[in-house]
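Technical note accompanying the year-one report. For the benefit of new consortium partners, we illustrate the data format agreed upon in the data management plan: each record pairs a sequence with a structure-token string. No post-processing was applied to the example shown here.
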Amino acid sequence: MKIIIASLAALTLVSTSALANPDLEALKSAYRRPATIPFPAENPYTFEKATLGKMLFFEARLSRDNNLSCASCHNPSFGWQVPFAKAIGAGGKPLGRKSPTTINHAWGTSFFWDGRAQTLEAQARGPIEAPVEMDLPMPVAVKRLSAIEGYKQAFSRAFPKQGLNEATILQAIATFERTIVTGDTPFDRWVRGDAKAMSASAVRGFVLFNGKAQCAACHSGWNFTDDRFHDIGLASKDVGRGGVTGKTEDTSAMRTPGLREIAARAPYMHDGSLDTLESVMAHYVSGGIPRPTRSPLMRPVPLSPQEMTDLVEFMRNLSSAGAAVALPNLPAR
């Protein structure tokens, strides 16, 4: 597969006056899907590597107690998340945050809610080794997989020069994660020119999203995220990005999540505190809790009930029908 880093157009917000006569075609151009998936030169795509990565993504033997896999927190049936306010880790204990989706990570610039990983390979290591998550040191993971003939063969095919080691485990998982891309949505069809793909309410919501509601200030580009960090005024004591940078101004800031497949990803926010898209809209309309670190982009927005309905209708059109994900056949012990 040819390695192409997609160039995503920056979105220019329309002015309030444009709402009366918006240039929809210009707005659409900022949301067109990229034609290819970007893979880094240091970990290029191969079918064998992606196939192995899928096996490892669903492999519970990568956890201390052989009962958790990456898919335990990133279930394809729920937008590659889980329908719980908090992810469940080692010993069945809830974690401090909701699991973020793995959809469209190939275009990400940082990972985890607080952005502490700069690559998908580094992200893959985190949950495997974290004591509160899968709690398995990588040397133990290598030893376990090396004792399974099926994995020895799979690694030989995917990495003929390197074989099975810590780096190739992470590279395989990251490669598979980069192939997790949102399906075709009503919004995508509308962007391509199918005027009937979205309802009039959803189209009004799209215009509001880019104008009066100011959603696109953070949820920009085809994946609906600026990949930056913002304190949106939630009632949470989580220090967020500030725990990574040590900067006071980053306290409570979390990475902007993309909105693709959002209808399947409830509950919402890093702490799973909002159950529905309607409650998400109510939070943004309120402006959130005022405090020194709250983003200057967060302020009360006067939206009518109909406008809020239109915005929710638009966001529901960012979800695809969803193809069934076949579970991989894992090697026996």
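Partners are asked to follow this layout when depositing records. DSSP finds twelve helices and two strands in the chain.
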